[in-house]
Amino acid sequence: MSDTPERPARTIKLNVLNEPKDSYTGGKSSLCPGCGHDQISSVIINAAWENGIEPHRVAKMSGIGCSSKTPAYYLGKSHGFNTVHGRMPSVTTGAYTINKDLLYIGVSGDGDSASIGIGQLIHSIRRNIDMVYIIENNGVYGLTKGQYSATADIGSKKKKGVPNKTQPIDLCALAINLGCTFVARSFSGSKKQLSSLIKAAMSHKGFALIDVISPCVTFNNNDESMRSYGYVKENEITLHMTDYIPHFNPVEEIDVPEGHYRDITLHDGSTIRLETISAEHDPESSIAALTALHHAEVAKKHVTGLLYFDNSKPSLAEDLGLVDMPLVDVPNDVLRPSKDTLDKINTALYN
Amino acid sequence: MATIANDFTINIATANGTGSQSANLILLQSLFEMGIPVSGKNMFPSNISGLPTWYIVRLSDHGYQAPGNRTHIQVLVNPTTWHEDLESLEPGSVVIWNENAKMEMTRDDVISYPIPMSSLARKINPKIAKLVTNIIYVGVIAEILGIDQAELESAVAKQFKGKTTAIELNITALGLGRDYFKENLSKSDPYVVERRTIEKKQFFIEGNEAVALGCIYGGVQLLAWYPITPSSSLAEGIINYIPQLRTDDDGNATCAVVQAEDELAAAGMVLGAGWAGGRGMTATSGPGISLMQEFIGLGYFAEIPSVFWDVNRVGPSTGLPTRTQQSDITMLYEGSHGDTQHIVLIPGTVEECFEFGWRAFDYAERFQTPVFGLSDLDLGMNRWACEGFEYPDQDMDRGKVVRDRDVFEAFEDFGRYLDVDGDGIPYRTLPGSGMDPILYRGTGHNPKGVYSEKPHDYFELMQRLRRKIDGARDLLPAPILREETECEIGIIYLGSMENTIQEIDDILEATGIKVSQCRVRALPMHSEVEDFIRRHEMTIVLELNRDGQMYGILRKELPNDLITKVRSAAHSDGDPPRAGIYAQLILDTLKEEEQ
Fold first, then answer.
1. For chain B: N or C, fewer Cβ within 10 A?
2. Cross-chain residue pair B295–A87, CB shorter than 8 Å
3. Surface-to-core class of residue B184, CB atoms within 10 Å of its CB (0-12 exposed, 13-18 middle, 19+ buried)
4. CA Rg, chain A, in Å?
């Protein structure tokens, strides 16, 4: 630590790119005060800044809903596409085939991802496109004033109406079963954990899904709700402490004894360090991940942390067999075959 | 007996999945090689194997390519449609029928040629007798009509490219068919073929393959598609040409292909590609376009270059999936909810399929909007004579994209949707380029791209979009005009009706009526179309649908004084257009007018 006695007035902290955090902020949020989504936005801003990501290399993708409005509130120097309801994965897939070098950060909600767009979510996981896919999951439709979504827990009751009776869809379990290469669950109130997970997801190659419980303060934050701030705080099972060490920092030794922590090296050389504090969890075992989710569901609790990780699978860009250069940079005269080739085709067809 | 040379129609009735298609293509190709103007139409079911299929071969020295108004030579192989096919024949028609089909010849007013096709086929190889049966009837037809053996053999070689066993087997079977007819029957019909000299070299190609090749030369960078008849062969055509034309020495391609989970996703991927600065496209048919409507509106409103090929089949709903129609015109032109208007390119020949294939991308990027190619099953899946493809005569037009910082800095004020040039087309920057970013959206926005619900912003945006697409009118392919001097009646038509129009015109002329023709090749309609209508007393719009969709568009867009000059002649029964039906429709329209 520095021992400078006097802090100079108005020190502006800069990241590894010498950029202030202001370079990563966005417009003013129009969401309800206290909305979990705004906390997630601020974590995204921090994560991108601390990770030293060039804002113009980021593509902010979203669908429709409260969550999908948020790309306007972070990374104002990045291009983005606020698409249509539930269809962000396909738009991202198309953009990614043309420019595989961008960092795609998709933000979605539980209506977007678990109902109208569940097919597209499934198929983008199946293709293993390189993207961070954040679900801001509150169990209700906000913009249409508080209907249950497909992730609402059985027995949970929103502010108005009767308790939910329909089986919820657990998007993390779904993703693990589909072979998703990075699956995590977090809580908008757990900034430290969420920040580590989002940074790790940014460093991952392949599809990284983070399902973030993000309470809706207007329609689903009452005591009978299983997705209220109070309930989640009381009933969160944290799999492990999560620490993220960016590739440009040394991985430091820690005081945790051997066997009680695990370092996972990510695609860009960064590390996510998992410190086991409750039950042991092997993040490379899908069985362990599904078991943890199942136990939590039975106990009416929410399990958070990095549930599952697999860095062995090729991403879509590798499967497509394309030239190294992003297609957007391929010059016109390479895209259009020469006249000579067409002459040959005509000749072959005549004979 | 007087002979009839090169002017008759052969109808071959088989079941699908029995290999008849390759036999029929050999027949077609051999006639083509003899220089005879010929067209082939496959009327097939939506089924893998066992349902009735007809293949219609029309020979016409006039160059008529429609299926013809009657059948002159009927080949009967399929028992299922035996009686139906037989009953529909005019007296004096020729019937070549499979004696082993356990069916009877119930007509005594036709020229009957019974052939034991199955037992002849079994002689060659009992295991594949069903397949061989088809080539037997080709041999019989060849003998009856006098098709050159050398041309037949070269057509077989072309069909089975280097597969020696298949080539030998087929040539043997052709011989068996020929010999059986020679030894057991004698020719009592007037139909013969005569070799013709062709001035220009030609080859046969399907419209779908021509579009595919056009897209390859248009620099397509993403093909996102979902299989659907009759467009699958368009997408597969692109896939087949990528290794040869769009792959470097290391085997790496410059075009991505993603088979999507459905048409919604395919459309989303196409928009994503356009958003990222690439040339994305999909190929589909009406049902797919129905599913894509949401994205089409987003493409229009957020101004994303994107290309959609619709190979029209018969609707509504699943309709007749393997039959042809021109019924998606309105859906494409006014696709998606809200006020929209889209550019639609409508090829009528295989040469235009190729040309519009590459041009579609230029229009999409120039106007920053979805562009549709409208083909149909008849044009797309049947083989048409082609004089060769012409290399694009213009460099790729990538539209108003700001790629350099200097250019960007030179703007006094930059906004994604700011109409700097007064043509309604704004400038865009690409993600990853480092130029000023925007958050694209399907919600209301101001010229800066920022969310807005202000009446002024919305109104001005919608006016600009109208101005932009309207400005495309005279930059799109102009109509093809064939005008008679001092002619009072004009005919407007589109797309694959091109292959029937000459015959319609001849039928009308035989009744003493002369008409001018105008083939519309794009929407929004070129101003020459309006001029054409103005020059004629009356214009009849000919189209292959029930409601007269093109006629509806004209009525909506023409000035009041011209609307009363336009009439509709629309008809569709699923079959490719037969000249007689449409000529009669025109005559009926004229008669109504006189009353």
1. C
2. yes
3. exposed
4. 22
Q: Is B264 exposed, middle or buried (0-12, 13-18, 19+ CB in 10 A)?
A: buried
Measuring CA to CA, which residue among B295, B211, B573, B209 is closest to residue A86? B295
Task: State mean pLDDT over A212-231.
Answer: 95
Q: If DSSP codes are grouped into helix, strand and coil, which group holds residue B370?
A: strand
Classify A303 as helix, strand or coil.
Answer: strand
Q: What is the pLDDT of residue B50?
A: 87
Chain B residues with CB under 8 Å of A349 CB are: 203, 205, 386, 388
Structure tokens that stand for B175 in this block:
């011989």
Chain B contact set for A121 (CB, 8 A): none
Name the 3-class secondary structure at B244: helix
| Closest Cα in chain A to B249 | A323
Structural domains of chain B in order of their starting residue, each with its CATH number? 4-192 (3.40.920.10), 205-386 (3.40.50.970), 400-475 (no CATH), 480-594 (3.40.50.920)
Is residue A1 predicted with pLDDT exceeding 50?
no
When the pLDDT of each residue in chain B is averaged and rounded to a whole number, the result is: 96
User: Which residue type is seen at B285?
Assistant: S
Nearest chain A residue (CA) to B275 = A95
Minimum distance, in Å, between the CA of residue A102 and any CA atom of chain B: 7
Residue of A nearest to B351 (CA): A346
B371 HSE (CA, 13 A, CB side): 28
Does this model's pTM top 0.80? My answer is yes
CA distance B158 to chain A (A): 9
- Locate the chain B residue with the closest alpha carbon to A349: B203
Size of interface A-B (CB pairs under 8 A): 210
| Residue in A83, A332, A341 nearest the CB of B442 | A83
Burial class (CB in 10 A: 0-12, 13-18, 19+), B298: buried
Round to whole Å and give the CA distance between A31 and A39: 11
Query: Is the CB of residue B175 less than 8 Å from the CB of residue B121?
Result: no
Give the C-alpha separation, B220 to B216, whole Å: 6
Measure the CA–CA gap between A187 and B385, rounded to whole angstroms.
65
Q: Where are the alpha helices (DSSP H) in B413-537?
A: 455-470, 498-510, 527-535
The low-confidence residues of chain B, meaning pLDDT below 50, are: none
Residues of A in contact with B248 (CB under 8 A): 323
User: In whole angstroms, how large is the CA radius of gyration of chain B?
Assistant: 26
Q: Shortest CB distance from B271 goes to which of A55, A94, A127? A: A94
Model pLDDT for residues A35-78, shown as the tens digit of each residue:
999 999 999 999 999 999 999 999 999 999 999 999 999 999 99
Mean pLDDT of chain A, nearest integer: 93
3-state secondary structure of B212: helix
First and final C-alpha spacing in chain A: 80
pLDDT (tens digit per residue) in B373-402: 999 999 999 999 999 999 999 999 999 999
Query: Which of A83, A127, A143 to probe the B interface (max B CBs under 10 A)?
Result: A83
Whole-angstrom distance, CA of residue A79 vs CA of residue A59? 5
Closest Cα of chain A to B344: distance in Å?
A: 23
Comparing CB atoms, the residue among A78, A122, A330 nearest residue B254 is: A330
Burial tier of B5 (Cβ tally within 10 Å: 0-12, 13-18, 19+):
middle
Which of B278, B396, B429 lies nearest to residue A98, judging by beta carbons?
B278
* Pairing, β B38-43 against β B52-60: antiparallel
The structure tokens listed for B16 are 């699908």
Taking CA–CA distances from A68, the nearest residue in chain B reads: B441
Collapsing DSSP states into helix, strand and coil, what is residue B136? helix
Q: Helix, strand or coil for residue B502?
A: helix
The domains of chain A are located at 21-326
Q: Provide the CATH topology of domain A21-326.
A: Rossmann fold (3.40.50)
State the residue for tokens 């004020």: B413
What ipTM is given for this predicted complex? Answer: 0.96
